[in-house]
Amino acid sequence: MFTRLVSLLVVYIISTRDLSHCCQVKQFAGKDSFVCVCNEAYCDSIVTEPNSLPDHLTIFQSDAASHRFSKSIISFNELLLDSDALVDVHIKVNGTDRKQQIFGFGGSFTDSAGINIKKLPAKLVDQLIENYFSETKGLGYTYGRVPIAASDFSQRYYTYAEVADDFELKHFKLAHEDTLYKIPLIKKALSVSKDLRLISAPWAPPSWLKTSHRPKGLGILQDDPGSKYWKTYANYIVKFLETYVQHGIHFWGVSPQNEPSTGLMPNWPLNTCGFSGHMMRDYIKKDLGPALKKAGFGKDKVKLMIWDDQLLDIMPFIRVILEDKEAAEYVSGVAYHWYSRLSLGNWTRAERYATDIIEGLNHWSTGWVDWNLALDESGGPNWVNNFIDSMVIVNNTSPEYYKQPMYYVFGHFSRFLRPGSTRLGHSIIKNNAENEVKLTV
Ligand SMILES: *[C@@H]1O[C@H](CO)[C@@H](O)[C@H](O)[C@H]1NC(C)=O
Ligand SMILES: *[C@@H]1O[C@H](CO)[C@@H](O)[C@H](O)[C@H]1NC(C)=O
Ligand SMILES: *[C@@H]1O[C@H](CO)[C@@H](O)[C@H](O)[C@H]1NC(C)=O
Q1: Which of 111, 233, 358, 428 could form an S-S bond across to 154 if both were Cys, CB 3.0 to 4.6 Å?
Q2: Is 96 in the pocket of ligand 1 (CB under 6 A)?
Q3: What is the rounded CA–CA span in Å between residue 54 and residue 427?
Q4: What is the CA(5)–ligand 1 centre distance, in A?
Q5: Which residues are the signal sequence here (predicted)?
Q6: In a domain? residue 288
């Protein structure tokens, strides 16, 4: 057993900097930081090679003022010389206190991401894929989320089974969004990140399965769990998984429903379907669980992740499912959400994002999948105008895109907390400056 004292340097790094991977800075009025511009002439990359000097540390630093993964090298001697002046935070790491293993970090292959990325010249598309998925030059993503049919980040509402009362799903068909945007983009990502694991989720079933007969607003599946309506929604998910397999794409996981709580709210503005914890429990054990298993997508092949919604209200919902032995048998894990409005060059935003990720990790989260891989200058397109932020914003009119502060801050997790690494127990034993804990991952 050993306990080690790790000292964290925050601001006083004066050693040589490696400037070869610098950000091409663009500032926006009223923002506390900047974005990095990528165009055909230039794009920065994230290179995190450690130094080969004995007794030296390599430090990668990003901050509001000027740095994006700036590398500095410092010797242990320098570190010890004047540690009180240098060190803001002491973290005591307990090497024998092993917590969860990291699963991975990633982003989402929405229609909108595909639409924005497809607007770019071919060279920039490859560049952007590398920015995200390369383990040596980008964020090293190993995880991705794919909506089943339309999410709100689509240009229109659609499902794959629009023919009413087609309970056998004879008319099930992928949309042009799949063949034009999602599938080609996923394949490009797979060519860079071989171990990419994908999770999918439907936003809404075909409307003829719902009480409301429409995608938005208050509405649940007709009839009861175990009925043909519920079975058809389960089979719809199975069909999706099977059809993607035909395109060479195998999913690691699926969630039964994106944001199930929203379909229980009157006037919810985007495509959804409501489930309470009890409804979800019965749907999983009577319909979805058996359907997945029968089709060869049992737990050993495809992980069923429940909740997939905002953190608020998570406990009562998942408890009902996980306390039921039969339903829990089909479930592999729990997923939860985070969002914000578009704000270019906002460092505060990035720090909040990091704080939430750390908080999640400290409470046994095993990874984080960011939302749209790329959005446009208004935070869309979104068919219900639910515009939000993204790590990458593509310019609508010129062939360039912007890497937000969030992109780099997320990289401090995804590049260093590789899949299979283990979180160790720690305690903070001194904390002079405010905010520093955020930088300690
Ligand atoms: C380190 O963690 C182990 C395992 O949890 C625990 O038994 C031990 O007491 C911890 N050591 C210290 C110094 O906190
Ligand atoms: C930056 O992001 C923070 C956190 O999301 C937000 O509160 C703030 O309004 C944003 N600032 C600007 C200038 O948009
Ligand atoms: C996008 O490019 C146009 C043309 O160069 C420029 O005027 C505009 O400011 C850019 N948008 C952003 C968000 O920087």
Answers
A1: 111
A2: yes
A3: 28
A4: 14
A5: 1-22
A6: yes
**Ligand 2 nearest-atom number relative to CA 32:** 13
pTM for the complete prediction? 0.92
Q: How many domains does the chain have?
A: 2
Peptide bond into 381 cis (omega under 30): yes
Cβ of residue 94 lying under 6 Å from some atom of ligand 1 = yes
Q: Residue 137 corresponds to which tokens in the numbers above? A: 């030059």
**Residues 150, 152: Cα–Cα separation, whole Å:** 7
Does residue 432 line the site of ligand 2, with CB under 6 A? no
Q: What is the CATH number of the domain that holds 334?
A: 3.20.20.80
Same domain, 85 and 190: no
d(CA 127, CA 110): 18
Task: Tell whether 75 and 133 lie within a shared domain.
Answer: no
Note the helical H segments in 7-108. 76-81, 83-86
List pLDDT tens digits, range 355-395: 999 999 999 999 999 999 999 999 999 999 999 999 999 99
134, 140 in Cβ contact below 8 A?
A: yes
Q: Which ligand number lies closest to the CA of residue 339? A: 2
